[in-house]
Write a structure and sequence with these properties.
Two copies of one chain form a homodimer. Chain A has about 500 residues and is mainly alpha-helical. The first copy, chain A, has helices spanning about 5-35, 40-60, 60-70, 85-100, 105-125, 130-150, 155-165, 170-195, 210-225, 260-280, 295-310, 315-325, 330, 335-340, 360-375, 385-395, 420-440, 445-450, 455-465, 475-480, 490-500, and strands at about 230-235, 240-245, 250-255. The first copy, chain A, has two domains: about 5-155, no CATH class; about 170-500, Neurolysin, domain 3 (Orthogonal Bundle). Chain A is about 65% helix and about 5% strand. The radius of gyration of chain A is 23 Å and the shape is globular. The interface of A and B includes residues 31, 46 and 244 of A.
């Protein structure tokens, strides 16, 4: 029997070095979005480009290929779910993806998207799409180059980009679940509109002092299980969660004194991501078993805590007394049911991150369609505002008044994240499936939430999803955990169970 | 003529890569001191250790030696003040210092000082010098080894250590200026004590709300020319300034609601460092011409803005109305002259970092003398407390009640920073010289300050000191700028001009 201990240990050492470099870049990326002074943008782009370059060099070192080949030929990877087999499988995937990209392209993408994000911030502020358009053009050219370099078999270039975020997923498969979800969503939105019922959402626009919002958000994130001894909450233009590694996970949100839901549900959402990061096997840092398995699964965690838990009647029956203490001016005369109805209003709106649980998926489908056209070259960057507004009107029946509320609202394209958006809707579907499976094992989740008992769900997620890292890819994980393949049905059931009574359907 | 363009360009590329790595580590170091969650400490140490390792590897690459040798033999470095000659000279110095130390010694110093600092924290807390003594012994042995490896010609081992912080400075030269400075200081302190005058310092211990302190500190730092578009001010337990590179310089301070001077003068001090960093030639980042020239010169900038400007009567006649608006409760009934007297109280005290402008230098001289004896082996670690207290009593006329207020107060020795202390007092003397030279050119500086006009001084420093980077080492820079070699006289003149009237001498 070949002695493979030495090559495997050497491989792990190399993989951990690459991860450490990536985690250093993550700190600089977080700082760029939270605290970077304006004049430091160019230097930060140089720093990040440099780290990306040396990270790429190390990740594509021929030595890794040799070690992988030796292990792959060793006959020791028989059990495909064993730690060694998983780490080798995922290292092979990363190595092959990375070696297909020339270093020049990696550095150029890092540099252009770093500057592109700064340009996007300014363009969005000024509602000035033409100021961003040249960056979008450059980024698209680079992403098409990336897709060509990665390859996509007999699929479409978009497959190569999607696969970066949702390993193994194909554009056609996503289209196949999106179609019935869209039909069900449009039907539900129509029924809600025709119900004529409209909650009083003005209570959410009262004065909610920002310090109190921050405190209440941290209280809620702590309740659901985010550990602030191993993390933080800061302010960023475009909220995100970044796990730097063991013991350090950063959440961000943004506050509006006269709009309660934005920061609060944003905080729960990012805390959901953070709980996934904090639930990883910390000892396995730097290897596949210590990493989250896909963005879709990541999003299933954030959306579950934000919507399935955070917008439930049971959650608010527990936290509303504290909300009243934090916001006496806004909430002292508001019954909890009115508040619950307000945070669950369903209506077409312009901003994806503020959309309700039902219409949200339509926002994703719009972006999914547009970015497929952009990558395919069927849509030109200059035509994005018109195409966005046309499709938006078709999906939602309303037209964005400006590009800040239209095609400039998201950071993704400026950051080069094409293929990322569909993972949000995949996450909603996975969340529906996991939530049903958890309830099967744990019993009445709403009774637990009403008693302030969120740890059983958190620990169920830790056990079934988080601690497994990349052991299973998303499609297999959902089958292992729920016994069923990816499906929109549990999500649609959840939406009806919740919104039918709210709107008297 | 040899074509040296290519090796020089290659050298600059390598030097910039090393600087970029260092600037990434600086971001992580800043975050460690400002925002790192407690559980992230170990991972951050791993990240920083990893970056230090690859930085060292790159900085000691034999290719740099080859490039330097080629350039040194090219005959193109005839003008020693040319950009190429300066960059090659300083790159050679860094390369030789980095490669003269065996890796084992570097790692051992890192390990022992890391543990030594932990031992020091505990020993200081428990006022227990014997608990720290074995670490001091080990550290001294290692620092003597370091001095031997670096070399010191026909000088003393301490020269090799001092040179790390103040390139080119010799122990004997520092002794030569410290002796008359000590005599003048002791004389002035005695006269002040005998004057019997004592300002009412209790006004500085009133309530100064932290938000207002922060706002007022930023206002003052902006006034003296720190650019917040290219920098920030955050909170850290141990205040520092970190220049990350072009457009990004971070200041930190710490607030005490009932002690005004700490945060305010700390902010001006760090802003002085920051103005130096911001005044560097940003295009020259990564080369000697884009770097500060020595710790002594750096300190001359921070101490000038903190003391020569920030504690002047003229400065306060301009900013006191704003101070009253920020702190109405504390200052509405305080005449500006009383406030000015309070922030300029002079009295012997035990803690260096809280010392006034006059006695501060005595704290430095005491440490300078003791650490020379320690490195030379004339003083044994076991005898440090007795030697400290004896010398302290001789210098200050008071005796530390315990070692926490005596020889255990500073982190420096536990961190292996022998040779660092004298740069603080050198900075004060350089500040005196630069301030006199600036006044010769700009006229009555106090009249400018009283009118809120700080930019002439800032721009004079930009022109004469900052934009030169490492073109001249400290000793030569002071001659080029002031026409005189290093001297204590301008500082002594400044102290008399200020404190004689304050104490009626």
């Amino acid at each position: 029997m070949t002695d493979v201990k030495t090559p495997y240990d050497e491989l792990l050492t190399e993989l951990k070095a690459v991860s450490l470099l990536g985690s250093c870049a993550a700190v600089l990326g977080w700082d760029e979005q939270t605290y970077l002074p304006p004049a430091g943008a160019e230097h930060r782009a140089n720093q990040l480009g440099f780290l990306a370059g040396i990270g790429h060099e190390r990740a594509t070192s021929p030595r890794i290929d040799e070690l992988l080949a030796e292990l792959e030929g060793s006959g020791l990877l028989g059990d495909p779910d064993s730690a060694m087999a998983v780490n080798v499988r995922e290292a092979r995937r990363s190595y092959d993806r990375a070696t297909k990209l020339p270093r020049r392209l990696v550095e150029e993408i890092s540099r252009v998207t770093s500057l592109g994000q700064q340009a996007w911030v300014a363009a969005r502020k000024e509602k000035n799409f033409p100021a961003f358009q040249p960056w979008l053009e450059q980024i698209l050219t680079l992403k098409r180059e990336e897709a060509a370099a990665i390859g996509y078999g007999d699929g479409v270039p978009y497959d190569a980009l999607l696969d970066d975020y949702e390993p193994g997923a194909k554009t056609a498969d996503v289209q196949a679940v999106f179609a019935p979800l869209r039909d069900a969503t449009v039907q539900l939105v129509t029924a809600i509109r025709e119900s004529g019922k409209r909650p009083d959402v003005s209570i959410l626009e009262r004065r909610y002092p920002i310090d109190a919002q921050r405190e209440f958000g941290i209280e809620a994130a702590t309740k659901i299980g985010f550990d602030f001894n191993a993390g933080r909450l800061d302010v960023a233009h475009h909220p995100f969660c970044s796990g730097f590694g063991p013991g350090d996970c950063r959440l961000t949100t943004r506050y509006d004194e006269h709009h309660f839901p934005g920061a609060f549900f944003g905080t729960l959402h990012e805390a959901g991501h953070g709980i996934y990061e904090q639930g990883l096997d910390q000892e396995a840092f730097g290897t596949a078993l210590g990493e989250t398995t896909s963005l879709g699964i990541h999003e299933s965690q954030s959306r579950m805590w934000e919507n399935f838990v955070g917008r439930s009647r049971a959650f608010w029956s527990h936290v509303f007394p504290s909300a009243r203490e934090h916001f006496p001016e806004a909430l002292s005369n508001v019954p909890v049911d009115d508040f619950y109805a307000a945070i669950n209003d369903v209506r077409p709106s312009f901003i994806r991150v503020e959309a309700d649980e039902v219409t949200y998926n339509l926002h994703i489908m719009l972006r999914f369609e547009l970015e497929q056209s952009l990558i395919a070259g069927d849509l030109q960057p200059a035509d994005v505002p018109a195409a966005w507004n046309e499709k938006f009107t078709q999906f939602f029946g309303i037209t964005p008044p400006d590009d800040a509320q239209g095609c400039l609202q998201d950071i993704h394209w400026s950051a080069g994240l094409f293929g990322y958006f569909p993972t949000y809707a995949l996450g909603n579907m996975y969340a529906g499936q996991f939530f049903e499976a958890a309830a099967k094992e744990l019993g009445d989740l709403n009774a637990l939430f009403a008693a302030g008992d969120f740890l059983p769900l958190k620990e169920w997620l830790n056990r079934n999803i988080h601690c497994r890292g990349k052991q299973y890819r998303a499609d297999r994980l959902v089958e292992v955990v729920t016994g069923e393949p990816l499906s929109q049905e549990p999500l649609v059931r959840h939406l009806h169970a919740k919104f039918d009574p709210l709107f008297g359907l």
